[in-house]
């Protein structure tokens, strides 16, 4: 359903708009029922237009209740008008209640959805509980006279969490979000300075070069260990892995029962296997260094 209602500019023509919508007459219950059936049964756009325009004052009244979120009232009314049209489109007159009762839910839903998407660059209010907290926190703070800046008192957090049935940490986080609107990282630190806030951001993570070097070093170590383990026989390899390479080492007692030898013999095999492992890895490292030196010398001569 596409309706040309009124041209509502974001702010400039708001006063005139509020005056103009008073010209549309209120509908009696009988008139509303007749128009609703004409739209539903015959898709009469003129009837739908009258239903919408007769409720524009309701949209404006509801939108005014959301002025505290810092968004242009004209835009809130525009979104509410979209909700009003959706309500007319889906209204069933045979259910026995007035259109205003049904439409107010669509109007509020449209306005609230717009606020959630426009209030912050960071997405917020993704669950029903978070949306309820977002739209009721300011009202509850006013009732508790807790409108001062900064974090809420613990007793206020507890009470709000109880009333809205949300975790206390959600209350704390939402209050901080509402108290600290978005700021651009490209904004200057001071009015007389060219430096921007983003210049002060420090990434504590390793650089890509450091991460790559660490990954390659870890891969080399794993390759050296895998080759060194191949120099051990099956029993030595198993005992060494169980005793040295597991998060929770297997006890000497368990290994002695498995191999039917004494715990001291298991310990001796472990020590010998570890020494063989170290020797093999050192040999691999020495061979690799010698190969690198040889390759460098060949490259130097070729150059």
The first-to-last residue Cα distance is 78 Å
**Rg:** 37 Å
- Look at the helices and sheets and give the structural class: mainly alpha
**How many runs of DSSP E, i.e. beta strands?**
0
Provide the succession of SSEs.
HHHHHHHHHHHHH
The CATH architecture category of the largest domain equals Up-down Bundle
Q: Sheet with the most strands?
A: none
Pfam families: Sigma70_r1_2, Sigma70_r2, Sigma70_r4
Organism: Acidisoma cellulosilyticum
Domain RNA polymerase sigma-70: 251-277
Coiled coil: 215-272
List its salient traits.
303 residues, 0% strand, elongated, 13 helices
What does this structure look like?
The chain has 303 residues and is an all-alpha fold. The protein has three domains: 1-119, Four Helix Bundle (Hemerythrin (Met), subunit A) (Up-down Bundle), CATH 1.20.120.1810; 125-181; 208-302, Orthogonal Bundle (Arc Repressor Mutant, subunit A), CATH 1.10.10.10. The protein is built from 13 helices and no strands. α10 crosses α13 and α12 crosses α13 (263-302). The model has no long low-confidence stretch (mean pLDDT 82). It is found in: Cytoplasm. Sigma factors are initiation factors that promote the attachment of RNA polymerase to specific initiation sites and are then released. This sigma factor is involved in regulation of expression of heat shock genes. Residues 51-120 are annotated as: Sigma-70 factor domain-2. This is RNA polymerase sigma factor RpoH.
């Amino acid at each position: 359903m596409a309706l040309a209602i009124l041209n509502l500019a974001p702010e400039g023509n708001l006063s005139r708009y509020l005056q103009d919508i008073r010209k549309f007459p209120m509908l009696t219950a009988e008139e509303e029922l007749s128009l609703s059936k004409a739209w539903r049964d015959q898709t009469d756009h003129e009837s739908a237009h009258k239903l919408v325009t007769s409720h524009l004052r309701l949209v404006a009244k509801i939108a005014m209740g959301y002025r505290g979120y810092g968004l242009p009232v004209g835009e809130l009314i525009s979104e509410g008008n979209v909700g009003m049209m959706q309500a007319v489109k889906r209204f069933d007159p045979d259910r026995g209640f007035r259109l205003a009762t049904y439409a107010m839910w669509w109007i509020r839903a449209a306005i609230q959805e717009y606020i959630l998407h426009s209030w912050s660059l960071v997405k917020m209010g993704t669950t029903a509980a978070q949306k309820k907290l977002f739209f009721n926190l300011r009202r509850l703070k006013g009732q508790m006279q807790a409108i001062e800046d900064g974090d809420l008192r613990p007793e206020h957090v507890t009470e709000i969490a109880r009333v809205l049935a949300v975790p206390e940490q959600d209350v704390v986080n939402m209050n901080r979000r509402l108290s600290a609107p978005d700021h651009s990282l490209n904004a200057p630190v001071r009015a007389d300075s060219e430096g921007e806030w983003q210049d002060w951001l420090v990434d504590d993570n390793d650089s890509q070069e450091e991460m790559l070097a660490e990954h390659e070093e870890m891969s080399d170590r794993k390759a050296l260990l895998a080759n060194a383990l191949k120099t051990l026989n099956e029993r030595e390899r198993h005992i060494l892995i169980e005793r040295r390479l597991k998060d929770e080492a297997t006890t000497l007692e368990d290994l002695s029962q498995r191999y039917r030898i004494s715990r001291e013999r298991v310990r001796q095999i472990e020590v010998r296997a570890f020494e063989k492992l170290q020797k093999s890895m050192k040999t691999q490292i020495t061979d690799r260094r010698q190969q690198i030196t040889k390759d460098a010398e060949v490259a130097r001569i070729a150059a």
